[in-house]
Design a protein that fits this description.
By secondary structure, this protein is mainly α. The protein has helices at 3-6, 10-26, 39-47. It has one domain (9-44).
């Protein structure tokens, strides 16, 4: 399969984006990333500071 075979039309891209937005609004995310803050970030959060 060449790169040209994978190309999407503008309408296809738009439909994929709309579907993604609908899923996000429903809370059906494809993946969830959880980050553990390091010591500096933890201290900032405890003091109410933003990074």
């Amino acid at each position: 399969m060449s790169i040209e075979d994978k190309a999407l039309t503008g309408e296809e891209i738009g439909n994929k984006l709309l579907q993604s937005v609908k899923e996000m609004k429903e809370g059906a995310a494809a993946r969830v990333t959880k980050a553990t803050p390091n010591q500096v970030a933890s201290a900032s959060l405890k003091k109410g500071l933003e990074e």
